[in-house]
Specification:
The complex is a heterodimer of chains A (about 110) and B (about 110). In chain A, a hairpin with a 2-residue loop joins strand 7 and strand 8. Chain A is about 0% helix and about 55% strand. Chain A is built from no helices and 12 strands. Chain A is mainly beta. By secondary structure, chain B is mostly beta strands. In chain B, the strands form 2 sheets. In chain B, strands 2, 4, 5, 6, 9, 10 and 11 form a 7-stranded mixed β-sheet that branches. Chain B is globular and about 40 Å long. The chains are: A mainly beta (about 110), B mainly beta (about 110). At the A-B interface, strand 5, strand 6 and strand 11 of A face strand 5, strand 9 and strand 10 of B.
Chain lengths: ~110, ~110
Amino acid sequence: GDSVTQMEGPVTLSEEAFLTINCTYTATGYPSLFWYVQYPGEGLQLLLKATKADDKGSNKGFEATYRKETTSFHLEKGSVQVSDSAVYFCALSGITSGTYKYIFGTGTRLKVLA
Amino acid sequence: NAGVTQTPKFRILKIGQSMTLQCAQDMNHNYMYWYRQDPGMGLKLIYYSVGAGITDKGEVPNGYNVSRSTTEDFPLRLELAAPSQTSVYFCASSYPREVPAGYTFGSGTRLTVV
């Protein structure tokens, strides 16, 4: 079945460092791909998305490119801030048995130190 | 503000008690979902609904029940609370005809069963 695999955390970086959080997926067909962010004590918020191969999603300085050849959707940011400390979830959406469903990765915790 | 509203935000239950977690959305979304998030873990789908009067089980439905009498509301019922149901519960909604269909999450209900 479809699945999403994320790198294990926590990822600890100093402020202004470069961030990469790896995400790979397995899916039949052509899913849409998403990154969500969860700040402490809050629900998940959609960060960015991509619908087809080579699409680049971007928001708040974060980027991710839909790579069909490597089945990946890695999240990157050039210079992280303390306020980026959160848990990041990769997800895909597709149709399973006629129903539109989501599959979430297990999340990667990011800690940014001042 | 438009979105998904969950109540209560916090609750402590004794073993064997019952309660209903409320979820309401005002975006006219067809699809609604209940997830649980255990400490340090990802999201597990409990139940979902593709429209009023239609519900279906997710990965971890045991010990829970749902109903969907209106498009707006999707309550989750715990009949006999057990310590294993201590978790944070998130409700979400989506409109699959939007491509891609991003989820809108509520802010969560933190439940402790003692």
